[in-house]
Amino acid sequence: MTTYFVTGISTDVGKTIVSAILTEALQANYWKPIQAGELNNTDTHSVKQLISNTISQFHESAYRLKSPMSPHAAASIDGLEIDLKKIISPKPKNNLIIEGAGGLLVPLNNTQTIFDIIKPSYKIIVVSRHYLGSINHTLLTLKYLTERGFDVSLVYNGNENKHTETIIEKMTATPVIGRVANEPYFDKNVIKEYAEIFKEKLT
User: Which of 58, 64, 105, 113 is nearest to 84 (CA)?
Assistant: First the structure.
């Protein structure tokens, strides 16, 4: 069984939608280690509502923080300090999708970041969305991961930008799993359609 870690080049780039597509495509389990904010409508809840299969299981977050902020700040407001020893990855007899929080170097405490949750065996899927500065953010993220020996793939979220995508391809040669268009809405049917498209690149 394979564990996929979904990270982004920034916040609000579409990690949860991509995680839902991957969960559906692989009928995988899903885990969000740290949920910061939106505790009545968590990312776990969103993914659960978007998938159709009955095999996927959902694991409880290690930390549920009240404020929609960087985990280190949200934890501080809650009177906590995030301890990586309490972030124990599930070991299901199934593929596992893990959704990170923000980008790789989002701080968890004074010394550790999201990257410190990632194990060498994980396959990393980077979600990139086009905006001014996104080339830099994408290249930095891919460079950081590939220099450390990770198996890395890209998913683009949003409309195509040939200039941006061509230069990223030329400078990194990172395989692209697919693209999520700017859909008017996402529901189970839309997620299932994307899951069928992505499935071939994941197996």
Answer: 113
